[in-house]
Write a structure and sequence with these properties.
Strand content: 5-15%
Number of domains: 1
Helix content: over 70%
Largest sheet: 2 strands, antiparallel
Order of helices and strands: HEHHHHEH
Number of strands: 2
Distance between the termini: 18 Å
Length: about 120
């Protein structure tokens, strides 16, 4: 149940960010949900491989290369999901940073509600 709620909140963040950022296009709400699922799957399966293969660069840049990896994940999602268009790498980089911020904020609201019931 909590996983589905996180996917819905991520889809909401994708829709909000696509309306704010000028290089992102999402055709409808269903596409936003598919983007959320795709990003989650890419984060689980592809991101660890990318981190492993780019570990020396990540260490030299003190972890800042992880922002590039997040942008690559967003670009991959753009290639995999029809109806989700990203204009370029810089747009994907900004989108990934803002998506992380939005998700952190929204997921913290879920945690607060859980603590209120205890």
């Amino acid at each position: 149940m909590k996983f589905l709620l996180k996917l819905l909140l991520t889809a909401l963040a994708v829709i909000v960010l696509s309306s704010i950022l000028p290089g992102i296009t999402v055709t409808n709400y269903g596409t936003a949900f598919i983007v959320a699922v795709t990003i989650s799957l890419l984060n689980v399966f592809v991101k660890p491989l990318l981190i492993f293969f780019t570990l020396p660069v990540t260490i030299v840049t003190l972890g800042l290369f992880l922002l590039v990896i997040n942008a690559v994940i967003i670009l991959l999602a753009g290639k995999l999901v029809s109806g989700f268009v990203i204009s370029g790498f810089f747009t994907a980089l900004i989108f990934s940073v803002l998506l992380s911020v939005f998700r952190s904020f929204l997921f913290s609201l879920i945690k607060e509600e859980k603590n209120k019931h205890l």
